Structure to design on (302 residues):
């Protein structure tokens, strides 16, 4: 019996570990689609007052790889400059780091999006802060959302961008870097490799079916449970009163009352006959004992 229980525990633990492992390893493809590795793309960048140069930047476009029609697609775009971008001078007045970029969005077939081929202008602004000369700057993340209305494929591709410092006081922005895509076959292949491709299938958005079943079944049982009355058990006991004797009746009293008889009857008055008989037996016994004692004394004297 003990061995069978031990084997059962080992089997249960093994099944739990196997299920957890399958869930973890099965989640890797989904995580890989959302957190894809950055891809290198060739850009020609020009700093303010400097000469243009070709750099290989890291483009990180992330988002879902598969959605259903009428479900929003949110894509993010992170740009990593070739060398750490730094503040050119010390900034005592808080400034915001801004990236202004273009993203190409193409849909196949054309019915997937309202604008099947679009060069979408995006912008992202980091919180305003003071800076020291040579301080490394981190570019904010760009974000775009589109909603497909038919099945097909939506492709997001990186394009040119500009980085500058801006203030809320209305002064002219300070440009830090202006980058354009290199136009050649190798650069086109890099852009294609860095692109985010999303397959649009048939179905309904996930928010719609989940809201309906959860609200409907939960509301119905609770209402029926509250409306059902709780049964109440009532116990009724009937007590019958003793009959009241009729004073005009000729019936005799069944029991003799304690103490003096209230009715004046003397039928049961006087001592009990058993007491008289017991007293007689006791007297005869005492007389016999006394006679034996007298007889022994007389015999002893003679």
């Amino acid at each position: 019996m003990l061995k069978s229980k031990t084997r059962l525990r080992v089997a249960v633990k093994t099944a739990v570990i196997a299920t957890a492992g399958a869930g973890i390893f099965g989640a890797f493809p989904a995580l890989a689609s959302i957190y894809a590795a950055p891809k290198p793309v060739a850009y020609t960048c020009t700093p303010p007052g400097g000469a243009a140069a070709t750099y290989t930047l890291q483009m990180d476009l992330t988002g879902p790889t598969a959605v259903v029609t009428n479900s929003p697609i949110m894509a993010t775009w992170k740009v990593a400059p070739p060398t750490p971008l730094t503040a050119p001078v010390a900034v005592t007045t808080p400034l915001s780091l801004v990236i202004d970029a273009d993203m190409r969005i193409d849909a196949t077939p054309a019915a997937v999006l309202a604008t099947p081929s679009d060069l979408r202008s995006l912008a992202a602004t980091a919180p305003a802060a003071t800076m020291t000369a040579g301080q490394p700057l981190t570019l904010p993340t760009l974000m775009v959302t589109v909603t497909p209305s038919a099945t097909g494929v939506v492709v997001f591709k990186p394009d040119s961008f500009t980085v500058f410092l801006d203030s809320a006081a209305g002064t002219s922005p300070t440009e830090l870097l202006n980058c354009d895509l290199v136009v050649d076959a190798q650069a086109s292949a890099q852009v294609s490799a860095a692109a985010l491709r999303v397959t649009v299938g048939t179905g309904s958005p996930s928010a719609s079916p989940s809201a309906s079943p959860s609200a409907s079944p939960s509301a119905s049982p609770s209402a029926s449970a509250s409306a059902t009355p709780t049964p109440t058990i009532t116990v009724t006991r009937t007590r019958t009163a003793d009959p009241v004797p009729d004073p005009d009746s000729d019936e005799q009293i069944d029991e003799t009352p304690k103490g003096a008889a209230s009715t004046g009857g003397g039928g049961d008055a006087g001592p009990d006959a058993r007491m008289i008989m017991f007293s007689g037996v006791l007297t005869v016994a005492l007389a016999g004992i006394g006679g034996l004692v007298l007889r022994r004394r007389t015999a002893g004297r003679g």
